[in-house]
Amino acid sequence: MKGKRWLVPVVSVVAVISVSLAGSVWWNFRAKRAVEVPPAIEVIATGLESPWSLDFLPDGGVIFTERPGRIRLLDARGNLLPKPILEIAEVAPGGEGGLLGVALHPRFSENRYVYVYYTYQSGAGLRNKVMRYENDGLTLTGAAVVIDGIPGAQIHDGGRIKFGPDGLLYITTGDASQSDLAQEVNSLAGKILRLSDDGTIPSDNPFPGSPVYSLGHRNPQGLAWDDYGRLWATEHGSSAMDELNLIRPGMNYGWPIIRGNDSAEGLQRPVAHSGDVTWAPSGLAFAVGSLFFSGLRSQSLWRATLTDGLALSRHLEREFGRLRDVVLGPDNLLYITTSNRDGRGLPTSDDDQIIRVNPAGLEGM
Hints:
Elements: H1 23-31, E1 41-45, E2 51-56, E3 62-66, E4 70-74, E5 86-87, E6 99-104, H2 108-111, E7 113-122, E8 125-136, E9 139-152, E10 161-163, E11 169-172, E12 191-195, E13 212-215, E14 220-225, E15 231-235, E16 243-247, E17 272-273, E18 281-287, E19 290-295, E20 301-305, E21 311-315, E22 323-328, E23 334-338, E24 354-357
Antiparallel strand pairs: 1-24, 2-3, 3-4, 4-5, 6-7, 7-8, 8-9, 10-11, 11-12, 12-13, 14-15, 15-16, 16-17, 18-19, 19-20, 20-21, 22-23, 23-24
């Protein structure tokens, strides 16, 4: 049984946030796990190295990235394949960069396309790019560039990639530690990008001839669509002030000009923010009428309930350490990766892990 982690003190969040602190209930639940059928929370993989992103194969398997440059598989029976299906030597995994997002094409069963986002060395600096591979059994071949030249740095590399309900590819990029780039429409840094699956620019993008879908972002790392088709994103703030944003095409989300409750003409304020505490939000998923996002420094799974306004609650606090990605699986369960071996956590012998969570069973945890 994994011990609790005590890296971050408990502090109150801004007044609009309702925090559920239920550690003792969760420990009592874990003590009775053997008699719970099915378990509300289940560890399905251990001994991983900084898994950053995951997606689901049609047969029920899970494909995921490890930041040092490995793409790995859990088969449909939940067995971890001992060898990666691809190791990308070009990946530069220092700081916050490395092999980050992964997404399967919406028609994967037909074309076998797998997309990944990663950081690499370019001259004396760093860059990020999105590559497409073809899955051939237990290997990935046919590397093709989708988009390149995304500014990179030791921090703020973004990295989330997902296909939207429109079949287009959405990509989050960080400001690469140069905050002013987030306001430059002609820079790929500090943006959410939108591309066709082959890397061409959709004709209805808000800035003609540009992949930029929204701008003014510091370091967005989560994307999800709700049941109205609206796009949401999580974003790392500076000195706390982390954000949950409702994304609209062509809108400017203010970094570095505004943050939190600040306002300025033409700039969008977040729907919710963390005030003077830190969520360090990353992955984002929509399920059972709520947005669920993972917290790194806060070591929690956060739930933003969208009915009758927005109410925020906190779950799994410090139970598994730093949480990186959260994805809704085809079984309507949440799949969460830990990030305790990324240089900022206190890993146990089981880390890192992939955890499966029933969102309906989170109350009281």
